[in-house]
Amino acid sequence: MESSFSMTEKDFLPQPYTKVVNKGSITWQAPSNIALVKYWGKKEHQIPANPSVSFTLNNCKTTTTLNYEKKKSPSQDFDFELYFEGKIKEDFKPKITTFFKRIEHYCPFLKEYHLTIKTENSFPHSSGIASSASGMSALALCVMSLEKELDPGMAEEFFNRKASFLARLGSGSACRSIKGKIVVWGKHDGIASSSDLFGVEYPGKVHEIFHNYQDTILLVDKGTKQVSSSVGHNLMHGHPFAEARFKQAHKNLEALTNVFQTGDLDDFMELVESEALTLHSMMMSSRPYFILMKPNTLEIINKIWEYRERTGMPICFTLDAGANVHVLYPEKHSEIILEFIKNELVAYCENEQYLCDRIGDGARRIEN
Ligand SMILES: Nc1ncnc2c1ncn2[C@@H]1O[C@H](COP(=O)(O)OP(=O)(O)OP(=O)(O)O)[C@@H](O)[C@H]1O
Ligand SMILES: C[C@@](O)(CCOP(=O)(O)OP(=O)(O)O)CC(=O)O
Question: Ligand 1 atom 3: the closest Cα is on which residue?
Answer without folding.
Answer: 135
